[in-house]
Specification:
The structure is a single chain. The chain is of the alpha+beta class. The chain has a domain at about 40-130: Nuclear Transport Factor 2, Chain: A, CATH 3.10.450. It contains 4 helices and 4 strands; from the N terminus they run ααααββββ. The chain has a 4-stranded antiparallel sheet with strand order 1-2-3-4, covered by helices on one side. The chain is globular. The N and C termini lie far apart (about 105 Å). The model is unreliable at about 10-35 (pLDDT under 50). This is DUF4878 domain-containing protein.
């Protein structure tokens, strides 16, 4: 026969274990979510540097706006210039001078040899996801309009 103190102790222990398990599950679900749906400007900058370090043009292109043409070409050029340096981020500064959906992100880092690295990553929010500026929109220039000239009239 089990005493009432013993039953209470078992019940408390069971409740405690359940609470610990629930907390662990909730913590696991909320940590490290860098999926595109929840990617912040900082997480996008960190993914950019990770793609550089891995010399992974495909991963870099995936950070751009989906469907933009020549994004893969731009990504390959960026990787050719700065890829594979083993960058360690020192700081990420985000400024939104042109509204809440456009950001200029300044990343400073050092490479494997201790040399400084600095770049600005232009970003925009696309359907609540921060993306980097690569390529151009597929319908760019199809409206029959041309860009304004920057030359002096004549």
């Amino acid at each position: 026969m089990t005493s009432s103190k013993g039953k209470k102790a078992v019940k408390k222990k069971s409740l405690l274990l359940s609470a610990v398990a629930a907390c662990a599950l909730l913590a696991g679900c909320s940590q490290g979510d860098t999926s595109a749906a929840s990617r912040t400007e900082r997480a996008t900058a960190e993914a950019y540097v990770a793609a550089l370090n891995a010399s992974d043009a495909e991963a870099l292109a995936k950070l751009g706006t989906p469907g933009y043409k020549d994004a893969d070409t731009d990504a390959r050029e960026i990787i050719a210039a700065d890829g594979g340096r083993g960058l360690k981020i020192k700081s990420v500064r985000v400024s939104r001078d042109f509204g809440p959906d456009v950001a200029s992100t300044h990343v400073t880092a050092t490479d494997e040899q201790g040399k400084p690295f600095s770049t600005y990553i232009q970003m925009s929010r696309d359907k609540d996801v921060w993306v980097i500026t690569l390529g151009e929109a597929t319908d760019f220039g199809k409206d029959g309009k041309t860009a304004a000239s920057t030359e002096s009239p004549g």
